[in-house]
Each structure stands twice: as structure tokens, then as C-alpha cells.
Amino acid sequence: MIKAADLPDTLAVFPLPGALLLPRARLPLHIFEPRYLQMLEDAFKTSHRLIGMIQPCPSPSSEDALHSIGCAGRVTQFSETEDGRYLITLTGISRFRIQQETNGFAPYRRCQVGWSGFDRDLGRAEHDDRFRRNGFMSLLNRYFNARQLDVDWDTLKDADDELLINSLSMLLDFEPEDKQALLEAPCLATRRETLVTLIEFALRGGSNEEILQ
């Protein structure tokens, strides 16, 4: 467990469109670019082993703009291939807010970050008391059938609320800006509502039909 006092003021950030990491969830990554191999090696030298996942932000004024909120993950698994690439797993620890980008000699980007406002990320798994699982699973079944995707339904049915909602938020094929909205949801209930809206939009083309919640 990482405590709030252990969170660093400066964080290496990995801008990757569409790659969403959420607290207590796991994100597998394939690291092969030299600058990110260096980022990973530097992360191994720290006690926290944190890397900040962040979405690039479409901006007419800058091609390098980043969204202000990302999620830090701790390297919890890694393996090295014969040609020097890494297969790693990040476990989500806490969201952060970028305060400013720092200049330095590292080939990757680093930012000064703040962690306030995300206290629930370091706590226990969240629950959603208003979650209507049967209706949600029915909606999900329609979504997967429409895309002709095979699903391990037993695993989905057995997953607790947070694991189910966060895993689907990370795995389903939404636009990067939609992924950002899921990341910034203040609580699990809001993330579930956002996820339902996105699934309904994908199925019905954004019609005005009532959203299933």
C-alpha cells in the first residue's frame, strides 16, 4: 500500500491515447521506445515505482498538450524480452492533477503533480448502491452481440461492482475523450452512469431514448 505522504511531487508521465488506467485496476503495457525504456529503468530506481498515465489533449495551440488529470500506476509485474523490450503491468494507485511540466535531461516527460481531491483512490474498493446489475448486464449483452464479441460471462457476473465497471471502462473501445470522462468521474456511481451513456450512444447512435441506469 502507498500512503498519501509517499506520493511524489514530480512524476514521469506516459502520454498514450486511449490507454486508461484507474485506481486499483491493472493495465498491461508493451514498452519498446528508447525514451520509455529509460523511463521504466528510472522508475525501478525509485521506492514507489510510479508512472503517470495521461491522455494527450487535442489543442489547436499545441501538439504536445496533455489533459490535466491522469492516473499513476505502480509497476507490479514486468518481464524482459530477448531484444530488450519490456512487458509490464501497472496497478492503478491514484489519480493526479498536473501543475506544470518540468524541464530536464530525461528523454521522457516529467510533471509536477498534485494529489488533492483524489483521497478515495487510496482507500478501499468503492461500491455503487444504486447499481442495477441485471439491467446493466442485459445492456452489456446487447453491446457485445452487436459487435460479435465473445465474453466470459461467468467472470463478469462474479466481479464486484468496482472491478466490473472499471475493467469495462478500460477495455471497451471508446474514443480517447470518452476515456478521459470515465477517468475524471468523481465516484464509481458517476463512472457507471457515464459508461452506460457511452454504451447506449454506441448502440443507438445518440438517440433521445431513455438511458438505462
From TrEMBL:
UniProt domain Lon N-terminal: residue ranges: 11-203
Superkingdom of source: Bacteria
Record-linked SMART domains: LON
Cleaved signal peptide residues: none
PROSITE patterns, A to Z: LON_N (PS51787)
Matches recorded under Pfam families: LON_substr_bdg (PF02190)
InterPro entries found in the cross-reference section: Lon_prtase_N, Lon_prtase_N_sf, PUA-like_sf
PANTHER family in the cross-refs: ATP-DEPENDENT PROTEASE LA (LON) DOMAIN PROTEIN
Protein name: LON peptidase substrate-binding domain-containing protein
